[in-house]
Amino acid sequence: MRLQYLIFYFTLGFMFSRSPCIGQADRLFYDAVRTEASGDLDQAINLYLKASALSHSANLHGNLANLYFKKEQFGHSILHFRKALLMNPRDAELLANLNFAYEMANLPRPLQSFRSTYFSANFLSFWIIICTIVFWFGLFITFYLLFFKTSKKTFLYFSFCWIFGFFLCCFATNLSLKQKSELGREIISHFPSIDNNHSTSIPLRRFAGESNSANTNILPGESLIIQLGNDGINKSFQIADGKTWYLAKSTDGKKKGWIREDEFGWIINPNS
Questions:
Q1: pLDDT tens-digit profile of 149-163?
Q2: Is 120 in contact with 179 (CB distance < 8 Å)?
Q3: Nearest to 193 by CA among 245, 131, 262, 250
Q4: How far apart are CA 65 and CA 105, in angstroms?
């Protein structure tokens, strides 16, 4: 009888633990789908963006990417295709659409693969769980073998396998963590919403601020890496108008300069 009560309360807890923000995001998502079907692309984009502020999914970012593509805002389109692939890296259609967006933006396809590997950022949670399981399982078996006084050979053999397996899991976790850390500093350039595509390129300035000359220019959709300061934190500077500027470098290291916060999008939002 107690087991039935436990199951009942667990089910209730699971149902009511669902965040109200997620429910609101779902409503916004379906409103956006209906608005898109009616032909109002701008309003559909606004609704998708509101939904993405509450929750994320590959479908949501994929739909956003397609809408931006239709409006020929390829920087925004590439950004959201990258976000969608991060959540669903095995989707061949998303990958094909991303490559087509790069082609339309007159950008070369990146050398790195967006396909998921067992050591990519997508598998970080998996490896953390595996490390935890291997550690506690090995510790339990170790105490078990000690308690029942098994042979020294058996104990040493198991200990070696346990330590070696745990080391491999930690190594895999570190690789995934490193990739996620690098991805957390990668940004995709795009035109600000107020620009309306009147420009053809985005300047990387010598110093933070509109009044400074451009060090070089980049196209919307190019990948950049935010540079770190001496304190290990993203190098940024906020000027008098309240806008924050970031020091960024192209993935090939050939272009470097300051970019304004509304001229790019994070693949992984640092505040999420």
A1: 778 888 888 888 999
A2: yes
A3: 262
A4: 13
- Does this chain's domain 2-104 share its CATH topology with 186-266? no
- Which residues, in sequence order, are CB contacts of 42 under 8 Å at separation 6+? none
Q: Give the homologous superfamily in CATH for domain 2-104.
A: Tetratricopeptide repeat domain (1.25.40.10)
Degrees, nearest 5: CA angle 230-232-236: 80
Token pair of 145, please?
């073998």
Q: Which two tokens stand for residue 24?
A: 């609101």
CB 74 within 8 A of CB 220: yes
In angstroms, the CA 271 to CA 239 distance is 21
- All structural domains of the chain with their residue ranges: 2-104, 121-183, 186-266
Q: How many residues does the chain have?
A: 272
Question: How far apart are alpha carbons 70 and 200 in whole angstroms?
Answer: 18
Containing 186, the helix (H) or strand (E) segment is strand 186-189
Alpha carbon distance 234, 120 (integer Å):
22
Q: What sign does the dihedral 82-83-86-92 (CA atoms) show? A: negative
User: Is the pTM for the entire model greater than 0.85?
Assistant: no
One-character DSSP codes across 95-119: HHHHHHHHHHTT-PPPSS--S--TT
The CATH homologous superfamily to which domain 186-266 belongs is SH3 Domains (2.30.30.40)
Torsions phi, psi for 220 (to 5 deg): -60, 135
pLDDT score for 117: 65
For residue range 204-230, list pLDDT tens digits in order.
Answer: 999 988 888 888 899 999 999 999 988
Residue 160: CB atoms within 10 A of its CB come to 10
Query: In this prediction, what percent of the chain has a pLDDT beyond 70?
Result: 85
